[in-house]
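Help: why these numbers?

___
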Amino acid sequence: MAEAVDVGPVELVPFLCECADFGSLGRVEASLLEYEEPHGGNDRYFIPPGHPRIEGEEVLSENGRYEVVIKAEAG
């Protein structure tokens, strides 16, 4: 990711919402370090604060600029 954008590791970069709605135009701002943290696995992603969630999604963390959500396993 660092090669794709010309910013430092703590500068904010705009990212598109990563929700399941392909028509979503939501945007979150995160640093490259913040972006890399939840993207260590395929089940975590960013959404804007207060964005509607689909059934089974759980908020793992939030900081006012974005929420990190995970798709909960069916049990």
